[in-house]
Design a protein that fits this description.
The protein is of the alpha/beta class. It has a single domain (17-336), classed as Alpha-Beta Barrel (TIM Barrel), CATH 3.20.20.70. The protein is built from 13 helices and 9 strands. α3 (27-45) crosses α10 (247-260), α5 (114-127) packs parallel to α6 (142-151) and α6 packs parallel to α8 (178-191).
């Protein structure tokens, strides 16, 4: 049986098959992988690409992750945080533009404590009862996750970064715990969130074995969302001189994830668009079905610099939405701005 057919039929992949898929130069095999992934995505969600409104809350972060431009040791990073009214204004703008999912993302900033963050979530929930609220605020306590869920949050994005504890230790400072990251993800699922995990493709010290572990972790966790994008080397970090991740590997892994987890909500990330001028379009063609135009205030877009040369930092929200929609329509897909909920198997 063809490798791609095996993956699609069994919703699984062996380590040897993964290596074969990532190393092949056979154009017909790559095209068959792409078309198979897209066919699976279409069978679940049609040719619809869901648009989420991204609001970047804060560039402050308590952590010192070795790959991130917002790491606390980066003295060159520009620090900002949105106040509550700015967040509500972003939501109002997004709602007028048709968005029905808001993604509130930020560094692990203690200013956004449970009291403040629960108030923000509750107010957005009351103002926009027909919208989904997604949070991506890093590691918090079970009590915090529960309080935010009770306040009205629906989804939570927390990249696991790697399913290998050894690899995790090479990407993060000693005070950060791989075990805690894993426990957070399982806690979020237990509470009832729609959960997103993910990893960087081509991160330093990544191997076929660690990637295989990532895919098996996704099969075990069965998250509603998976966010992957290429590693982008960033100035003022310990990994500034490392090579960027490969767009080609990212596309193949998007397709594999679609085949092993057909119902997953799978973003075509900004990092893909940063390393390739048509990166997000290619991601969609390889099975992705989510994009996240930026609703953040224009004067802070460039300051949320988790990696270098991030795209879409100079467009107003309406421009960002229109540009994204145009790009998606140009490759034959329909953009939709409804909640775009996960479809159960």
């Amino acid at each position: 049986m063809n490798i791609i057919d095996y993956i699609a039929q069994n919703r699984d992949i062996t380590r040897e098959q993964l290596e074969a898929v990532l190393t092949t130069d056979d154009k017909e095999s790559i095209e068959y992988l792409r078309s198979s992934a897209r066919r699976v995505a279409d069978s679940v969600y049609g040719n619809k690409i869901f648009m989420r409104g991204l609001i970047e809350l804060s560039s402050y972060c308590r952590n010192d992750c070795l790959y991130c431009g917002l790491r606390r040791s980066n003295k060159e990073a520009v620090r900002y945080r949105l106040n509550e009214q700015q967040i509500y204004d972003c939501c109002a703008t997004g709602y007028r533009l048709g968005f029905r999912t808001f993604v509130m993302q930020g560094g692990e900033d203690g200013w956004f404590n449970d009291e403040r963050m629960c108030r923000i979530v509750s107010n957005v929930r009351k103002q926009y009862p027909d919208c989904a609220i997604t949070l991506s605020l890093g590691e918090r306590s079970r009590e915090s996750y529960q309080a935010l869920f009770d306040a009205g949050a629906n989804r939570y994005l927390l990249r696991h970064e790697t399913a290998s504890a050894e690899h995790y230790s090479k990407l993060h400072p000693d005070e950060m715990s791989w075990q805690n990251r894993m426990e957070c993800l399982h806690t979020l699922k237990e509470i009832g969130y729609q959960v997103g995990c993910g990893f960087m493709v081509g991160s330093p010290y990544q191997t076929i074995d660690t990637l295989y572990a990532d895919l098996q972790f996704i099969r075990e966790l069965q998250p509603q969302m998976v966010g992957i994008g290429p590693f982008v080397a960033t100035a003022n970090t310990p990994f500034a001189s490392f090579p960027n991740g490969k767009v080609s590997d990212t596309l193949r892994l998007l397709a594999i994830i679609r085949l092993i987890h057909p119902h997953v909500l799978l973003p075509a990330t900004t990092a893909l668009g940063t390393l390739h001028p048509r990166g997000r379009e290619l991601g969609i063609q390889f099975g992705a079905n989510v994009v996240m135009p930026n609703l953040s205030p224009l004067d802070h877009r460039k300051d949320y610099a988790i990696y270098d040369n991030k795209i879409c930092t100079g467009e107003e929200a309406a421009e960002c939405r229109a540009c994204t929609e145009h790009r998606i329509k140009s490759i034959g897909f329909e953009t939709v701005v409804d909640r775009g909920d996960y479809k159960k198997d």
